[in-house]
Amino acid sequence: MPLKEIQVKSVMTKSNLPVSDFSVNPYVGCSHACTYCYASFMKRFTNHPEPWGSFVDVKNWPQIKNPEKYAGKEAFFGSVTDCYQPCEEKYGRTRKLLEELKGSGIKLSIATKSDLVLRDLDLIKTFPNARVSFSINTLDEGFRSQMDRAVSIERRLKAMKIFYDEGIQTTCFISPIFPGISDPIEIIRRAQDQCNLVWLENLNLRGDYKAKILSWVHENHPELDSLYYEIYTKGDRSYWAELDAKMKDFCQKEGFPYLRDDDSKHSDFGQKPVVVNYFFHEEVKKSAKKSGGTVLK
Predict the structure, then answer these.
(1) 270 SS3 class
(2) How many H-runs (helices) and E-runs (strands) does the chain carry?
(3) Strand, helix or coil at 3?
(4) pLDDT class for 269, splitting at 50, 70, 90?
(5) What is the pTM of this model?
(6) Average pLDDT of span 83-87
């Protein structure tokens, strides 16, 4: 895989996401090559002819001279690429940034599909209210291996458990939920004793990977063709409404708080994980603009 080092003015990018003040991506591109990756649209800005998932640029940036200016702010590590993809083991750009920001008072939110994040547990523990999120949308390794080149689900779950036991807030990010394939309840039952938070996000097909996913579904699950046609061609949202009701009922029976708004930035988590629904992207965007949050009506 082609890797090259590039110089950037800053690795701290002001974020338009309602969940953070800054987006942090120490790399351009991602070797995890997730088939459903929403970030593949970024390829148009990279000057790379290779397909998304087959190249990585390693960012170099000037040393942050006044990290205290980020005190009280929140940085989302991995908004576009995984900060702990395999090349991080060699280049260590994510760890370098953590070292530069240590003691600044900035809050961290890290999203990954890798257990390499365990290497930086010592640093992450020094940040206030740090949160580490692991993306898990299946317990089926066969399906997982067809969708991404990241580490196994079991390795992700083991890493989640270690962070949880160390007192770091952990999130099980069940995303993307493939209609008729992903089983959120099964995943929650597996992760419920090692995470503070569960995020539910639907498969949102757009861009050049829509045809790829629909083709995969047709080849591997032709019985689901009509369901995917209703959802992704006709725009029928009834599947998600029914799943929302099912998840609400499950959470009520199990005693899990179930939210259709993100009240998850507080640190007062109980013994059971908080489950947050992010099924309707367009409503998240509208409400975020109105209130600065992610309230779903």
Answers:
(1) coil
(2) 10, 12
(3) strand
(4) low
(5) 0.89
(6) 97
- b/e code 154-190 from CB counts within 10 Å (16+ = b): ebbbebbebbbeeebbbbbbbbbbbbebbbbeebbeb
Question: Between residues 30 and 288, which one has the greater pLDDT?
Answer: 30
Residue 282 confidence (pLDDT): 54
Find tokens 């070797």 and name the residue.
Answer: 31
Could you state, in order of their start, the residue ranges of all structural domains in the chain?
A: 1-107
Distance of alpha carbon 21 from its chain centroid, rounded? 16
Cα 273 from Cα 264, distance rounded (Å): 10
Residue 209: pLDDT band (50, 70, 90) is: confident
Q: How many CB atoms are located within 10 Å of the residue 225 CB?
A: 12
Going along 26-130, which residue ranges are E strands? 27-28, 56-60, 74-77, 107-112
